[in-house]
Write a structure and sequence with these properties.
2-enoyl-CoA Hydratase, Chain A, domain 1, six-stranded mixed beta sheet, ClpP/crotonase-like_dom_sf, four-stranded mixed beta sheet, HIBYL-CoA-H, alpha/beta, 10 strands, 17 helices, ECH_dom, EC 3.1.2.4
């Protein structure tokens, strides 16, 4: 008799008590979102929306390290290099899913522990309830791989306090539990040890407001709040070049902090930095669906460029952390170059019915 290995499903669905539960199930890959996971999650949510026995939907993740470290970058990189249309299909389906979560007719509760970045944020932060444990590490690191803070980052980042969202987008800085709660990424903080009990109570009660009020904690102020004045002063500038100039000129107690932020920015793709700043400026004035259409325009152009593939090579594949960006300097990225990423497409993202792919 021969033994055959059966692969674990990448995403799991179950009904427990009053809840429908989604479990991201790729712990060895830090629950990175694959095309399969996105394509399965959406129709299940549609089915639960019309199921009277499901009063709320809960999303969680297997393992202790990560809720989700983002999209499956290797998969996307391979598609893009091969000019496979699957890459654009993935982003179209992902952005429609993000929109459906934002508009979902029932409570949508994300139980978030460990790493949450990029695409992981996209299936969490647009829900009605975002519950974070003490081990949370949130970031939008896309400019470091020649990409941009998508999955609704155009909408939710500019709506964080002051210029915190712009700072996160340009530096790829990280937030812990307290700052995520203060900044609006999370709606509730709980003790990590209580996360399983929170899940059980949500399934039993079917009332997330009542349940989460019982478990919610008030963590001490996080480090971001202490530098908010510097963030607002420096990242309010209209251009990336001026932001860097203000960081370089910072003196006093936070001068060393400012120098670190400038150094992080200078390691990123110049094109990505300028795209991200424009996102923050445009997104602050746009509704959610327009923000998602903007992102689809950008990702379509990025897929035809070079920096994303070079960034993934340097950071994830070869791991030499020495990307050769094209163009290599901020000065070489013109306003017209940036405008081209935001120009309307012949086939815009259709969000007229986000309940359908």
């Amino acid at each position: 008799m021969t033994n055959s290995l059966v692969a674990e499903p990448e995403i799991l669905f179950e009904k427990r008590g009053r809840a429908g539960i989604i479990t991201l199930n790729r712990p060895k890959a830090l629950n990175a979102l694959s095309g399969t996971m996105v394509s399965l999650m959406h129709p299940q949510m549609v089915a639960w929306a019309s199921d009277d026995s499901v009063e709320l939907v809960i999303i969680r993740a297997a393992g202790e390290k990560a809720f989700s470290a983002g999209g499956d970058i290797r998969e996307l990189h391979e598609w893009g290099i091969a000019k496979d249309p699957a890459m654009r299909v993935f982003y179209r389906e992902e952005y429609i899913l993000n929109t459906y979560i934002k508009e979902y007719p029932k409570p949508y509760v994300a139980l978030i522990e460990g790493i949450m970045m990029g695409g992981g944020a996209g299936v969490a932060v647009h829900g009605s309830h975002r519950v974070v444990g003490e081990r949370l590490m949130f970031a939008m690191p896309e400019t470091g791989i020649g990409f941009f803070p998508d999955v609704g980052g155009t909408y939710f980042l500019p709506r964080m306090p002051g210029k915190v969202g712009t700072w996160l987008a340009l530096t790829t800085a990280r937030l812990g539990q307290s700052d995520a709660l203060w900044g609006g990424i999370a709606t509730h903080a709980v003790a990590s040890a209580d996360m399983d009990a929170v899940l059980d109570a949500l399934c039993a009660d079917g009332n997330p407001d009542k349940t989460l009020a019982r478990f919610a904690t008030t963590p001490q102020a996080g480090p971001t709040q202490a530098v908010l004045d510097v963030i607002n002063r420096c990242f309010a500038a209209d251009t990336v070049e001026e932001i860097l100039a203000r960081l370089d000129a910072e003196t006093g107690d936070h001068a060393e902090w400012a120098q670190k932020q400038a150094a992080m920015m200078r390691a990123k793709s110049p094109t990505s930095l300028k795209i991200a700043l424009r996102q923050m400026q445009d997104g602050a004035k746009a509704d959610f669906e327009e923000c998602m259409r903007i992102e689809y325009r950008i990702v379509t152009r990025i897929a035809d460029g070079t920096d994303f593939y070079e960034g993934v090579r340097a950071v994830i594949i070869d791991k030499d952390n020495a990307p050769k960006w094209q163009p290599a300097t901020l000065e070489a990225v013109s306003d017209a170059d940036v405008d081209a990423y935001f120009a309307p497409l012949p086939d815009e993202l259709d969000l007229s019915n986000p309940a359908q792919f």
